[in-house]
């Protein structure tokens, strides 16, 4: 039996994350799978109760506290006071939930392979968004916003790529064009992350560019567990 003490003024914005890591095996007995499923459902209920208690403690003001008794038979729970998170993780060997997916239930996140982080940072003094998982760090230039777009060319978008497994920066450059037209390489636009947080199934930053040739989007996507970056392009439909 374990207990967590919650004190208002210390844990205000706790984010509750349940991460499930999957390794599919056909040979696992059905009864064991059912038992594990029941344990996970129980933990989802526990996290919902923790969320409700945190909200009550916050409303009661400074000095209010609760002690939550916990019994954890499966998996591991970690409280991170610096990040204001409570994380429960478990390794399961059947597809309880699809890999790299998530569900948000109240103030906690439940999902599989939630190992990606998206934040705002700097790269050599240049404003950037960073997407990071177990293997890679990707730095994408922060460019304007929807109401205040900026001029740029596609060679300026990808600032850096770091491979954590070999502790090396990957050299090279990236430039994009449509139909190999020079006019499509530069224009006015912005970059925006889909979500900035930790414990994500994937990270995505989208760049919009309005050129004299065509308007289009470029998406940089890094999934949890992946050692490669997906780059997708799409045209903007003209009216």
Measured by DSSP, the beta-strand proportion falls in 35-45%
Strand order of the largest sheet: 4-5-2-7-6
**Terminus-to-terminus distance:** 63 Å
Order of helices and strands: EEHEEEEEEEEEEEEEEE
Poorly predicted spans: 1-21
Approximate helicity band: 10-25%
Largest sheet: 5 strands, mixed
Instruction: Count the domains.
Output: 2
Please give the number of β-strands: 17
Overall residue-averaged pLDDT value: 81
- The tally of helices reads 1
Structural class: mainly beta
Shape: elongated
- Structural Rg: 22 Å
Secondary structure topology:
Blueprint: E1 2-7, E2 15-22, H1 30-60, E3 65-70, E4 76-80, E5 85-92, E6 102-105, E7 108-112, E8 117-123, E9 126-132, E10 136-141, E11 150-153, E12 158-163, E13 168-169, E14 186-193, E15 202-210, E16 215-223, E17 230-235
Parallel strand pairs: 2-5, 2-7
Antiparallel strand pairs: 1-3, 4-5, 6-7, 8-9, 9-10, 10-12, 11-14, 12-13, 14-15, 15-16, 16-17
């Amino acid at each position: 039996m374990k207990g967590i003490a919650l004190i208002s003024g210390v844990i205000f914005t706790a984010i509750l994350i349940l991460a499930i890591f999957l390794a599919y095996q056909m040979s696992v007995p059905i009864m064991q799978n059912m038992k594990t499923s029941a344990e996970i459902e129980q933990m989802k209920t526990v996290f919902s109760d923790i969320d409700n208690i945190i909200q009550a403690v916050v409303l009661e003001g400074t000095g209010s506290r609760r002690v939550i008794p916990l019994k954890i038979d499966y998996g591991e729970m970690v409280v991170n006071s610096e990040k204001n998170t409570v994380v429960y993780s478990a390794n399961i060997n059947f597809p309880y939930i699809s890999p790299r997916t998530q569900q948000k239930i109240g103030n906690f996140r439940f999902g599989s392979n939630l190992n990606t982080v998206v934040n705002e940072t700097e790269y050599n003094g240049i404003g950037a968004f960073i997407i990071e998982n177990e293997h890679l760090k990707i730095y994408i230039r922060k460019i304007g916003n929807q109401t205040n777009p900026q001029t740029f060319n596609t060679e300026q978008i990808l600032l850096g790529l770091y491979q954590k497994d070999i502790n090396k920066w990957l050299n090279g450059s990236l430039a994009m064009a449509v139909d190999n037209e020079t006019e499509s390489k530069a224009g006015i636009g912005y970059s925006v992350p889909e979500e900035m947080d930790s414990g994500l199934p994937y990270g995505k930053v989208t760049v919009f560019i309005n050129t004299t040739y065509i308007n289009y989007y470029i998406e940089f996507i890094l999934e949890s567990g992946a050692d490669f970056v997906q780059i997708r392009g799409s045209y903007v439909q003209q009216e």
